[in-house]
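Exercise 3.2. Students should predict the tertiary structure of the chain below and write it as structure tokens, then compare their answer with the key that follows.

Predict this chain's 3D structure.
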Amino acid sequence: QVQLVESGGGLVQAGGSLRLSCAASGRTFSSYSMGWFRQAPGKEREFVAYITWNSGSTNYADSLKGRFTISRDNAKNTVYLQMNSLRPDDTAVYYCAASYYRGTTSQGLYNYWGQGTQVTVSS
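Answer key:
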């Protein structure tokens, strides 16, 4: 199976930036996609962004377009989430996930999940 490990979370002032990393190990697939999701206190998990391994096609939650950027390094089996202009309501546990599907926003179609990394944005 695939193991996913997130890193890069922490405490940031509002307006600041942070870059999250997700390292994948185990089986390597050329066609599946990687996604980022987040879960804020008292809220359900929501979609953030995804990227496909082969083409690099991306998709973002509408509210995050322009502030967050997802990218990947296929040789390193690593996906990144660059977060800029952070706001207090970005505070959440951020999860990376892997899917055999070429690209989807539905968390039910993701097959592997990391344990999450905490991002806290102070005002």
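Discussion points: The radius of gyration is 13 Å. The mean pLDDT is 93.
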